């Protein structure tokens, strides 16, 4: 909760005009003439296109944003052929025009904290609408759901970087299962990922304040022991717990011969790398998208090469053997700081947790 604002008079503290340096006084006078009512110190400016100021007030960070900017963003004047809202007064018109210039979503909404009113003139853009609905448990109205589904193919017009960012926001912050469900429901999943999950278990380990690196998300879409295959096989042979029989793909424990288990792990590693290669191959994606005649031609690959290589490295230890300088992780607790940075050891450990918690759930009797 944001603390109440306090206003102080400088005279009460013995601060007179003469004690303020001339350059500082000039800046303060200029701000006052422009209508500024408050001046903050230790302010952090975040963002380039839409700068937001992070102001520290006690233990709280308050985001401060201006309604408009004097900076010129385009070489020509933009014209809007959209009619303003009905019965729009002067203040409402200012808010509406400002919303037209903003990137959608929470940025495109305006909240009056005093009147406790949310202004939404722009509606929602598809991917961010899905992300917010999944994370906060919102439901689409019938009208919104209709248009999201009908205009699903329009997301192909987005920049690859934006698609990757939005997908990472959906999958890496504890709402992956709900996000994938909504993407599938509205026909977006086969457009974004025409090649495809234990995402429900992943969500239990992650949260908005405890995200993971994007490499883990895409690795799940397609081990923790750093390549020590002999140790891994010994652990596998000692597992006596019953697995979740609802997974039809899992076979009953049979021959646990080291060579046979090793071959199966190698096959799994090769299969995952093959799927990852398909997800980053323009030709394969275009062939998969050809099954959707209503969509415009697309060979969209929004997973960059650097991320693909990082994901592949997670399983390289299986083929190359024990990694040089490998030190086994001593604690089972997830280090979320290292996970967010993409630490290979931490990503492997978290993936192992996801697999084991999915296949061998604690509440299985």
TrEMBL record:
Lineage: Eukaryota, Viridiplantae, Streptophyta, Embryophyta, Tracheophyta
Protein name: tRNA nucleotidyltransferase/poly(A) polymerase RNA and SrmB- binding domain-containing protein
Gene3D superfamilies xref list: Beta Polymerase, domain 2 (3.30.460.10), cca-adding enzyme, domain 2 (1.10.3090.10)
Domain of life: Eukaryota
Entries under InterPro entries matching the protein: NT_sf, PolyA_RNA-bd, tRNA_ntf/polyA_polymerase_I
Pfam family, one: PolyA_pol_RNAbd
SUPFAM superfamilies documented for this protein: Nucleotidyltransferase, Poly A polymerase C-terminal region-like
Species, as recorded: Hevea brasiliensis
Annotated tRNA nucleotidyltransferase/poly(A) polymerase RNA and SrmB- binding domain residues: 137-196
